[in-house]
Design the sequence.
């Protein structure tokens, strides 16, 4: 079946870069694009009008957590009134032995919500760097059912994080858990890489640079080479982590990862905010940005999440200019990859004090082509003959695009996930008119809300101070819940 998308602003890939065709067309047959660019005169079995819309390659979201503790990620990062106000709630450092894993239904409900939320907001490929705790069959089934494209693998570490009774963070070594976790992750890849009609692919996720010992990180990288899969770890994510790695190895997290052979063109580094380039560590030795560039590693930049915590890369432009492959992720909520383009652009300008920083072109490339490099996918993140039919139709007219005259600038300056009208993955239309066509959205949201509330109810049981969500993260105004 041949489908013609016509009449929109088409972002086509010319083999070197994206270019835009006014009143262009895209044709796809089954899961592959056969034409992208100007008018198409051939026959088609179905037609989709893209008048007033941008026809864009689907975005690749390099930082998503579908884990069972997803409730954590719904909490606003900005008010994590916690240890050094670092993002430790995302580690959910509990009193040891007090946190019970969420029930399987809750895990499933949050996974479905995360995938759907990401899809609706313009993500077609999800890189799940922290999910997949248990029930892999259910996970693969869900990826199959929802139609999203996913790279994932169960995260592992051999140093768990806990709070003691006085609220002091500590790391608890468990070498066995690390070895076992890596073994399971390898098992997942062997069992599920290529599942969901090829849309589910495996990768290795060493949880965080400081929660994995050097032997575990080395073993992870060896396994990734053997399996020929990409790897991810969080590094340069917060100052505590930076300091711990300095204390342990007398190196920055980035230099440490480079020296143990972890950093290369198949490595994705979540955040990489705290490097020698960032003013807070005030560390004058070495050049982490150059190291990232020389090793060909990819940075998963999550601008909005970090901005909420009053932090950012120093800077998007500095990394890009140095030759670092910078990709974009959302990390927490909202998982609005379209809005992230604007955050990446604006934060680059503010950080550098230069309005020529964070150009529209560069942030759009970051959310499309950059991630494909470490995934080694020349068939994603672009609209070109032979590429996968992962396509977005994004409403632009109501943003003033006809007046603006540059649809990419319109998108970056004014767009958000709610402007995404149609989402096509692997040649299948999953979202049309902003609504899912194949799942009951209301049911997904209701179940996810139930799972989240259940998670939040249990917070005082594992918090060192016994505080609940209302104390840790007060609402903007008092909320009178419905009875
Ligand atoms: Zn993360």
Sequence:
């Amino acid at each position: 079946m041949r489908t013609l998308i016509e009449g929109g602003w088409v972002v086509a890939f010319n083999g070197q870069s994206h270019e835009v065709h006014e009143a262009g067309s895209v044709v796809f047959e089954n899961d592959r694009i056969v034409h992208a660019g100007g008018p198409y005169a051939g026959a088609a079995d179905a037609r989709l009008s893209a008048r007033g819309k941008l026809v864009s390659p689907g975005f690749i979201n390099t930082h998503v957590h579908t884990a069972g503790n997803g409730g954590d990620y719904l909490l606003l990062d900005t008010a994590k009134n916690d240890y050094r106000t670092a993002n430790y709630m995302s580690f959910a450092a509990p009193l040891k032995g007090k946190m019970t894993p969420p029930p399987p239904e809750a895990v499933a409900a949050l996974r479905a919500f995360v995938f759907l939320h990401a899809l609706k907001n313009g993500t077609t490929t999800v890189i799940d760097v922290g999910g997949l705790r248990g029930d892999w069959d259910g996970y693969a089934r869900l990826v199959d059912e929802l139609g999203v494209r996913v790279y994932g693998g169960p995260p592992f570490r051999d140093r768990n994080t806990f709070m003691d009774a006085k609220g002091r963070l500590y790391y608890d070594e468990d070498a066995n858990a690390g070895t076992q976790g890596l073994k399971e992750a390898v098992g997942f890849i062997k069992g599920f890489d290529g599942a969901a009609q090829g849309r589910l692919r495996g990768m290795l996720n060493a949880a965080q640079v400081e929660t994995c010992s050097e032997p575990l990180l080395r073993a992870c990288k060896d396994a990734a080479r053997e399996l020929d899969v990409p790897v991810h770890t969080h590094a340069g994510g917060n100052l505590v982590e930076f300091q711990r790695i300095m204390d342990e190895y007398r190196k920055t997290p980035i230099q440490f990862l480079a020296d143990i052979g972890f950093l290369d063109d198949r490595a994705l580094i979540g955040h990489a905010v705290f490097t020698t380039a960032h003013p807070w560590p005030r560390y004058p030795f070495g050049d982490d940005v150059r190291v990232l560039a020389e090793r060909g590693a990819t940075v998963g930049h999550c601008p909005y999440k970090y901005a909420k915590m009053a932090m950012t890369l120093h800077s998007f432009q500095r990394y890009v200019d140095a030759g670092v492959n910078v990709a974009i992720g959302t990390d927490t909520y909202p998982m609005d990859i379209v809005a992230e383009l604007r955050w990446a652009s604006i934060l680059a300008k503010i950080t550098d004090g230069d309005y020529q920083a964070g150009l529209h072109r560069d942030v759009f490339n970051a959310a499309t082509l950059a991630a494909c490099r470490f995934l080694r996918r020349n068939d994603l993140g672009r609209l070109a003959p032979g590429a996968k039919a992962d396509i977005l139709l994004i409403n632009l007219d109501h943003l003033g695009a006809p007046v603006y005259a540059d649809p990419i600038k319109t998108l970056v300056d004014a767009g958000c996930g709610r402007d995404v009208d149609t989402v096509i993955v692997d040649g299948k239309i999953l979202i049309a008119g902003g609504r899912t066509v194949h799942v009951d959205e209301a049911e997904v949201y209701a179940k996810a809300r139930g799972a989240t509330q259940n998670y939040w109810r249990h917070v005082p049981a594992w918090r060192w101070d016994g505080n609940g969500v209302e104390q840790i993260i007060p609402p903007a105004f008092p909320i009178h819940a419905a009875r």
Residues 175-192 form the longest helix (18 residues).
